[in-house]
Design goal:
The structure holds 2 protein chains of 2 kinds. By secondary structure, chain A is α+β, with helices and mostly antiparallel strands. Chain A contains 4 helices and 5 strands. Chain A has a 5-stranded antiparallel β-sheet. Chain B is an all-alpha fold. Classes of the chains: A alpha+beta, B mainly alpha.
């Protein structure tokens, strides 16, 4: 059975370090490699940076067999959903989608409603070599 | 390349290079001076190692002091560049520690633990053939996972000082890394999304790191090997670069 951890965080730059600690704690429980933990932190951090600075969002972690699934939302910033769908790997065009596509195994908009969108970030737990 | 020492001959060579830079605007002479005196910077930086800051960061900060000394040097001075630069380099390193305020805010044990992490990651990565987990790192260092995470966050709060201090102290490029080719692939063409590049505002090293990470898809450990930095340092540079780019476009 997957374990779940859910916290609500203010969309405020001052809380970025708090979010990083939460992510690292979850990653440690999930036995993510150090580099994968760092990737997940970066993904969450960049996503929140694009989500505006008002209100709060829920961070929900699902720790399953071989994966950590993170859901973040509701995020109300207009254009965010479109930016997430626009995976353009033109050199020099380092978009949010490109960053996420590099640092997590999969991502996407999981829910969209009047309250905003919920974004899913998934990181697989690598097999020891 | 020949390194500068305190000998009269080298002092004379320094003076000639300083003259070419200050009188003729010869930037290659400036680069030459930097290269000649980097061993001095490394030597001074080593004196402050083991106080919670990576040595490579202290060397970078010290290099800023060297550049300032070169730029401010007055040819009329009856003093060698090495003598003149030393207090500048040391001053810059001390200012870095003051700015960090670690001695006050962060327990020494955490600073030291953080400082030991880079080499531990490299050792374990080499031994295991993969990136280690937090638990493996904690075991190697003889601390708990919670202490590891705490010390990690101490490091992530750290802002890497860029070498982007040009002549006159303005942030106008990366003087130490201005030697080399342009990264034409990363020229900004247009702003099409919220996280698009202000890449040309980044020093060339940071641009190269971003290109390796996001265009070539290299993991941080491989990037670290290629650029000669620790993986933790590469991680910080990536985070900082992305934040800088976004701020540029905000």
């Amino acid at each position: 059975m997957p374990e779940h951890v859910t916290v609500a965080v203010p969309l405020d730059e001052a809380f970025v370090s708090v979010v990083r600690i939460i992510v690292s704690g979850v990653a440690e429980r999930a036995e993510l490699a150090f580099e994968d933990m760092d990737d997940l932190q970066l993904a969450v951090e960049r996503l929140l940076a694009e989500a505006g600075s008002e209100g709060r969002a829920s961070l929900s972690f699902e720790l399953g067999a071989g994966y950590v699934r993170t859901r973040i939302g509701p995020l109300r910033e207009q254009g965010l959903a479109e930016a997430l769908h626009r995976l353009d790997r033109t050199p020099g065009q380092l978009t949010l989608a490109w960053v996420l596509d590099t640092v997590v195994d999969s991502y996407g908009v999981e829910e969209a409603s009047g309250d905003g969108i919920v974004v899913r970030l998934e990181k697989l737990v690598g097999e020891p070599m | 390349m020949k390194q500068a020492t305190g000998s009269p001959l080298n002092a004379a060579e320094d003076r000639e290079l300083l003259r070419r830079f200050h009188k003729d605007g010869d930037v290659r002479a400036r680069e030459h001076l930097v290269t000649r005196h980097l061993p001095l910077v490394r030597s001074l930086a080593r004196r402050y190692a083991g106080r919670g800051e990576p040595l490579e960061d202290l060397e970078q900060v010290g290099a800023i002091g060297l550049l300032k000394a070169i730029d401010r040097f007055e040819l009329e001075r009856e003093v060698s560049l090495a003598t003149y630069a030393t207090p500048n380099v040391v001053g810059e390193i001390k200012r870095h520690f003051r700015d960090k305020g670690w001695a006050i805010r962060v327990p020494r044990a955490l600073q030291e633990l953080n400082a030991r992490m880079s080499s531990t990651i490299e050792r374990l990565t080499s031994r295991l053939g993969r990136s280690p987990s937090i638990a493996e790192m904690a075991s190697e260092l003889g601390v708990t996972s919670e202490e590891m995470l705490e010390a990690l966050e101490v490091g992530s709060a750290y802002t890497t000082v860029s070498l982007s201090v040009g002549r006159g102290g303005e942030e106008d490029g990366d003087p130490l890394e201005s030697i080399g080719e342009e990264d034409t692939n990363f020229e900004r063409t247009e702003h099409r999304a919220s996280l698009e590049p202000a890449l040309h505002h980044l020093p060339s090293r940071e641009r190269k790191i971003l290109r390796m990470r996001f265009e070539e898809g290299l993991p941080q450990t491989q990037i670290a090997e290629r650029v000669g930095l620790s993986q933790m340092h590469v991680s910080r540079l990536i985070r900082k670069s992305l934040a800088v780019m976004r701020d540029e476009l905000a």
